[in-house]
Amino acid sequence: MAGFRFIDLAKPFLPLIPEVEIPYEKIGFDEKVVYTIISALIYLFTQFPLAGVAKDVGAGSVQDPIYFLRSVFASEPRTLLEFGIFPIVSSALLLQLLAGLKIVKVNFKLRQDRELFQTLTKMIAILQYFLLANVFIFSGFYGENLSVVAIVLLNVQLVAAGIFATLLVEVVDKGYGFGSGAMAVSVVATATSFVADVFGVTQFPVDGDGHREAQGAFINLTQSLRSSHKTYTSAILGAFNRDYLPNLTTAFLVVGLAAVSGWLQNFRIELSIRSTRARGINNVYPIRLLYTGGLPLLFSYVLLFYIHIGAFILIQIVAKNDPSSLIYKLLGGYSSVNNLLYVPQFPLSLLTPSKSLIENLTRQPLTAFTFTAFLVVSSVWFAVVWQGISGSSARDISVQFKEQGITLTGRREQSVAKELEKVIPVASGAGAGVLAVIVATGELLGLKGKGASIVIGITSAFALLELITVDYQQSGGQSALAQVLGAPGGGF
Amino acid sequence: MAKGNTQIERITEAPVEFVKEGAAFVQKCKKPNTKEFSKIVRAVGIGFLAVGIIGYAIKLVHIPIRYLIV
Q: Which residues cross the membrane (chain B) (predicted)?
């Protein structure tokens, strides 16, 4: 008896938790593309409004406390996807981190252990959906004094949607699609919300006179320029400044952030390598600055989510957001803004970027330092740890080199690992740090989570694109999709 | 006492060292040139917008459904 292990907890549930079968035969390139995109689109399609929410949710009641974290996890308030992919991402990241640090003991060489680990990850994801659902229900987010039926109904909806999302992500993860499902979902959700924010045509009532404005910032500009109740200057100013719906300033900032992260994505150090088997074959092996991609940021946002949910539980459920209570005084409370958002007060506000730059400078100047520091420290820590445990550490790569019969030019085979050890941890740490600073800047300019989500979206898009390109080249360009779209072989 | 000092030094040195190494790394990095970059931006941009438009179309389908069920 080797003693009790954490993953054994999953054993009794192994037959209970639904699972996606690993594909029997090799999935072709076209099918993979279709599976990846369609799974993500089905995810978007499940954003149905929740049934059983009290009608009078609005003025004076509990508002959205995590509005600035939502777009990172593709979640929409008061829909089935209230928590988005947060439980899936967080349980996968944290468990893999714990397993990598040997806190949770898993032998990934054993099939049995791998299965248990997978089931445990899923179980914790579903458990989190359940817990978060009840936190939100009992905080009064769906209305005060809900009936028992409504509570059960909300639970069923949120948890069932959670299980569904878990399986949807698993379909892509298990080899039907490219990369990880969470990545695909985050790319598609980010892209969709970007298009909706810029070109969205949905009209929303904005004032008492029955005027309506489009959701999309660009559509709004053209509409306001043509409308009769606005002058040209006020139309243009409004398009750049409105804070109730997406404005052009945020749109430009988001495009800027996307461009910067795309640019950084291509920062690399090229180590020259040569074959040990044949003479005169030289090549380069690129080590990226963003060695771990957007994952470190995602990890920071998972931490932020936990901190804010923890605070929400204490402040809203325990202390009822009452200014005279001790918890309120220690942690800060929430003030309701526009009857839509719950904005945390000092000191919780230290980890909450404000809604606009001016507010950030005047009302919470400390946030700029604390928030940036939090993002940078947690991202860098994660990146440095992750590169060592994720199967692409210096040691793993030197093993790969040996198998493929290549070595760094001018090095003996034995010292390859040492040489890589000098480069890879620095690259991943520095990359994560730079990315964190960029996101923090964007967020402090008032992007309400859009900054982080576009950076994570773009880095995931690059990762996906790379997987797709490699697969396309390996399949020899045999793709009906590519022919239909008229894409040339090396178009990417 | 001396031991404590070195420990504090190590704690304060680590971030400085990290920033130095990181900055040196970023400087050594090969940056994409304009041509390469514009190619990448075009590929990713078009893909991103295309996916976004499909996604938004799906969201538009949601509006009548919401009317029906709420």
A: 40-58
